[in-house]
Amino acid sequence: MIGKKQLIQKRIFDLVLSVLLLPVLIVPIILLIILCTIDSKQFGVFSQYRIGQHGKPFKIFKLRALKEEPHQLGHLNKSTTRLGLFLRNSKLDELPQLFNVLLGDMSFVGPRPDIEGFADQLTGDDRIILKVKPGITGPATLKYRDEEAILCKQDDPETYNRTIIWVDKVEINKKYVQNWSFYLDLNIITKSILN
Fold it and tell me: pTM for this one?
């Protein structure tokens, strides 16, 4: 079970890695923001409130991949820009979350942060997930890398997400928190890069 000492170790690792990566990635991030701005005809960074550690909301940053019009769960491609489709498939749209890690809202590894109505509604033992900061990647992220494609095949993507995928993610993330180790985080980061 992850404890206070382990949470401190995790934070130190996040800070060191983000400080090392920022000088390397800042120029590509700026270029992608400019390209996303041109492609979507809106500012190239999208922000939205998500549920973070201890159930507290925070503002997440992503490269803008969607057009302005509303989109339905499981039908994202209809409103995804040409560049946005590439960014989502390659997960490069997550690059601005490096700043979320630097600010202390996120970790490199952890449960993916959800909108209200999911993590903030957890009860009982399931709330252990909220002990850790949400991650750019995580064990459930690896399993559901093709989540949008899975949802697109469902007659009712919203219900399938809530009753099947979300329930499975909770179990995966509980096991992650219960069995956390520095090696586990390194392993997940490596798999995320290679997959």
Answer: 0.90
